[in-house]
């Protein structure tokens, strides 16, 4: 499969999750803005009719997991961010400034999985 297509849909999902998490945990608002910028970056390479359905599906997952509490949000966020980091490391060149910036931001999002979300 095309790495840009997978990245596009992955960032659409990550944007939805961060937006869903942010309804209860405001610390995710910054992550939402960054994920949205990642999504927009990959829109320059590919477009798909699946973007909106993926975004809204993960938005609902984010809202529902927020209802379950911090441990659910941290677990889902950790799995999503670890997957994104692994994907970028395996599929994209490490000499790309944009990809390195995205990776750095993904590590920042991963750090939200540790500590109290209400205190940040």
Automatic annotation (TrEMBL):
This is Rubrerythrin diiron-binding domain-containing protein. It comes from Sulfuracidifex tepidarius. The chain crosses the membrane at residues 54-73. Keywords: Membrane, Transmembrane, Transmembrane helix. It comes from the Archaea.
């Amino acid at each position: 499969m095309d790495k840009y297509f997978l990245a596009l849909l992955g960032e659409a999902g990550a944007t939805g999750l961060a937006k869903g998490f942010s309804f209860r945990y405001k610390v995710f608002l910054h992550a939402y803005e960054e994920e949205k910028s990642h999504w927009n970056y990959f829109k320059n390479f590919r477009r798909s009719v699946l973007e909106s359905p993926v975004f809204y599906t993960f938005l609902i997952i984010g809202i529902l997991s927020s209802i379950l509490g911090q441990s659910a949000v941290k677990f889902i966020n950790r799995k999503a961010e670890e997957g994104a980091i692994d994907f970028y490391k395996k599929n994209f060149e490490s000499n790309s400034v944009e990809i390195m910036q995205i990776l750095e931001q993904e590590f920042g999002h991963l750090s939200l999985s540790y500590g109290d979300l209400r205190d940040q």
